[in-house]
Amino acid sequence: MFKQNLITTSIFLLCISLYAEDNKPTLDCTNTIRPSFPAKRVVMAHLDTNQKVGNRVEAGQVAGTMTPYPEIVSKTFERQYRKAEQLYAEKKFNEAASVLEPTIQVEKNNPFLWNLYARALYAANRKKESLPAYQTLLSIIDAGESFNEDGSPDLVVLDSWFLEAYWKISTLYLDNEDFAKSIFYNRKMLDIVTFANTYYDPDKMLYNVSALSYLAEAYYFLKNKEANQYYVCETLKIDRENKYVFQFLLL
Q1: Which segment of 12-21, 23-32, 43-52, 69-78 scores lowest on mean pLDDT?
Q2: Contacts of 85 (CB under 8 A, 6+ apart)
Q3: What pLDDT was estimated at residue 63?
Q4: Does the chain have fewer CB atoms within 10 Å around its N or its C terminus?
Q5: What does pLDDT average to over the chain?
């Protein structure tokens, strides 16, 4: 099983100016600023690193290596888990969820069982059931997180094993118009994938454009013009013909 090198990288700014018509406002993408991640402290889980707690990792410096997934995810329900994996691969999502339902009633704190169960529900378009399943998963893997009295994040956990879960729950919160939570979990996924992964290739990651455009959408409804314009520009750097994101452009 291969290991992924996780690093922080500098941000490449592409100069883009977008003109609708000569008499309409112009969006200048040369000076947009990436919003800082909303946390005072960040801990990355399942990462082999020689960094010490409190160290600042500079752009381009290797932060660590993602640890391999365990070969056995459940001592009691390994067979059911592997069966559900196969059903998921065969796009039999409801069947996969049915296989996993009894397992999560017993191993209530097993993140792998909850993750596959939530994924199966999501893929089966059972979004209302998928949301609480993902919430349970994140309550397990992000248990060490802490928040300030005003609700803002203090210590944020980024679990490199479950990045897809952050992405999926962010889309569910966006559908529910909980824009702040959608942004939080979207960025937990996207900031690692785009800025901390040597294997990152935007052309091979289909959800990347969606993630960027969904951030633009969420910031639009929160009326955060600076952040909104940044993610509109980031979307258009990868997909210049993207029309979805223009619905949510603040000028």
Answers
A1: 12-21
A2: 96, 116
A3: 59
A4: N
A5: 83
The per-residue pLDDT for range 149-160, each reduced to its tens digit, is 988 888 889 898
End-to-end CA distance of the chain: 47
3-state secondary structure at position 246: helix
Instruction: Supply the pTM of this predicted model.
Output: 0.83
Q: Which amino acid is at 8?
A: T
Contact, 218 vs 186, CB < 8 A? yes
Please list, in sequence order, all residues whose beta carbon lies within 8 angstroms of the beta carbon of residue 161, skipping any fewer than 6 positions away: 45, 46, 66, 69, 111, 141
Q: What residues have CB less than 8 Å from 149, skipping those under 6 apart?
A: none
Domain 5-248 falls in which CATH fold?
Answer: 1.25.40
**What is the residue whose two structure tokens read 């203090």?**
154
Token readout for 248 is 């949510």
Instruction: State residue 205's pLDDT score.
Output: 54
